[in-house]
Amino acid sequence: MERKELEELVIRKINDRGVTLEQIAELTYFLQSSYYEGLTLDICLENVRSVLKKREVQNAVLTGIRLDELAEMNMLGDPLQQMVDHDYSLYGIDEVLAFSILNVYGSIGFTNYGYIDKLKPGILGEIDRSGKKDGCCQTFMDDLVGAIAAAAASRIAHRRQQ
């Protein structure tokens, strides 16, 4: 698959799960606005798009979304099905996938990610709530979205330092 096609597929998959890039940019703005005077949602969106161009990020997003989809179809098999369905706190693989995104932009991403993962502002709270409904699994999606936003915030911080 061509690079641009893969990027478009990833964005489409994110959108299909009920999340827009603008909503991820809002999370990025939430993380960086107090450190960057004049930061705009457009700058945040540009950085979200840049994060999504990375192959490692694309792979993590496609993998996590597919696992959520398979869980919704009850196709994972137990005990994995139960762990993903109920987003067990000791499962942790959803966070490991998020960490693969965060590693692309350095350690500041881990702090950003931990902060919004705990607070669940904006779309993260919506994803978390929708994932608790019958027939819907968002175990990986909330962590992926949080990681993309945190990575974009890290990218902004790194570029600002330069």
Could you describe the 3D structure shown?
The structure is a single chain. Helix 2 packs across helix 3 (41-51) and helix 4 packs antiparallel against helix 6 (93-102). The model has no long low-confidence stretch (mean pLDDT 95). The chain has a single domain, classed as PgpA-like (YutG-like). The radius of gyration is 15 Å and the shape is globular. The chain has helices at 3-16, 21-32, 41-51, 55-72, 80-85, 93-102, 108-119, 123-130, 141-161. By secondary structure, the chain is mainly alpha-helical. It has nine helices and no strands.
Give a topology summary.
Elements: H1 3-16, H2 21-32, H3 41-51, H4 55-72, H5 80-85, H6 93-102, H7 108-119, H8 123-130, H9 141-161
Domain YutG/PgpA: 29-158
Protein name: YutG/PgpA domain-containing protein
InterPro entries: PgpA-like_sf, Put_PGPase, YutG/PgpA
